[in-house]
């Protein structure tokens, strides 16, 4: 269990770094994951701290941000792996943690099942699966094929339905929402999708925070310029 004052917010995180743009960028990323950043260390459950900075008295757990490995403390290397940061936050705040980043999407996709192709609308994506809206309800464990175009790259992969939420169960929605897990023939697809999701997360966070994507503060985050560089 994490230590924290009685007034600590459930998902409150403090960020202590020298560059205010780095703080703004990290805050934007964390907001996308539904965490709240606070300035008051006594209100935080965990503090992200740039190596070399001193901290006043506090009761939060500390996660050091360092360009080199540190001994006997919890740390993340800079540039920061968003997947590792996400897993650290999940482990601190939740018992049933997710291990994969998820990014909101709003793109068309094609769905094949029973030998026919159907139009779908992808609404979120992770390296291991996606959620989409379509015109039909699909039973759990239905095998499907998903084809999507991500940053100029057409990805087609086998998948399996995890769940389907009927439109009638969600007020205001006119189509069923389907969640699938990817089952690609090659492990490389997972790695490429992970790189795509990480880069997309940075792009969305920069846009929300009003930070240019080529600003030096973005170098604090580890991501691939071309997620498909190693994808055949």
Notes on the protein architecture:
Helix 1 packs across helix 3 (188-209). The chain has a 6-stranded antiparallel barrel with strand order 7-8-9-12-11-10. Strands 2-1-3-4-5 form a 5-stranded parallel beta sheet, with helices on one face. Strands 6-13 form a two-stranded parallel ribbon. It has helices spanning 20-32, 82-93, 188-209; strands spanning 12-16, 36-37, 46-50, 61-66, 75-77, 80-81, 103-113, 116-126, 129-134, 143-150, 153-165, 177-182, 221-222. The protein folds into 2 domains: 1-99 and 201-232, Rossmann fold; 103-185, Thrombin, subunit H. The chain has 3 helices and 13 strands. It starts with 11 loop residues before the first strand and ends in a 10-residue tail after the last strand. Residues 1-8 have low confidence and may be disordered. It is elongated. 20% of the residues lie in helices and 34% in strands. It is of the alpha/beta class and 232 residues long.
User: Termini, distance in Å?
Assistant: 45 Å
Outline the biggest β-sheet: 6 strands, antiparallel, barrel
Would you tell me the overall average pLDDT?
A: 92
Written as H for each helix and E for each strand, in order along the chain, the element string is EHEEEEEHEEEEEEHE
Classified by CATH, the class of the largest domain is Alpha Beta
Structural class: alpha/beta
CA radius of gyration:
20 Å
According to DSSP, the number of beta strands is: 13
The best one-word shape is elongated
Helix content: 10-25%
Beta percentage is 25-35%
Compute the number of structural domains.
2
Low-confidence stretches: 1-8
Order of adjacent strands in the largest pleated sheet: 7-8-9-12-11-10
Here the CATH topology of the largest domain equals Rossmann fold
- The number of helices is 3
CATH architecture of the largest domain: 3-Layer(aba) Sandwich
């Amino acid at each position: 269990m994490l230590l924290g004052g009685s007034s600590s917010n459930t998902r409150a995180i403090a960020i202590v770094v020298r560059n205010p743009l780095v703080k703004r960028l990290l805050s934007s990323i964390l907001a996308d994951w539904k965490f709240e950043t606070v300035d008051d260390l006594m209100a935080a459950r965990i503090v992200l701290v740039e190596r070399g900075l001193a901290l006043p008295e506090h009761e939060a757990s500390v996660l050091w941000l360092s360009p080199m490995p540190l001994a006997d403390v919890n740390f993340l290397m800079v540039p920061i792996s968003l997947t590792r940061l996400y897993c650290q936050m999940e482990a601190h705040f939740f018992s049933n943690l997710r291990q994969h980043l998820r990014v909101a999407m709003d793109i068309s996709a094609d769905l094949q099942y029973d030998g026919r192709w159907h139009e779908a609308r992808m609404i979120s994506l992770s390296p291991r699966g996606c959620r989409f809206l379509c015109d039909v309800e699909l039973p759990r464990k239905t095998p499907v094929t998903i084809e999507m175009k991500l940053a100029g790259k057409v990805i087609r992969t086998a998948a399996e339905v995890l769940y389907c939420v009927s439109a009638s169960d969600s007020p205001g929605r006119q189509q069923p929402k389907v969640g699938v897990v990817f089952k690609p023939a090659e492990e490389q697809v997972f790695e490429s999708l992970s790189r795509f999701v990480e880069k997309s997360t940075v792009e969305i966070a920069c846009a929300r925070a009003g930070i240019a994507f080529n600003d030096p503060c973005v170098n604090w985050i580890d991501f691939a310029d071309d997620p498909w560089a190693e994808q055949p």
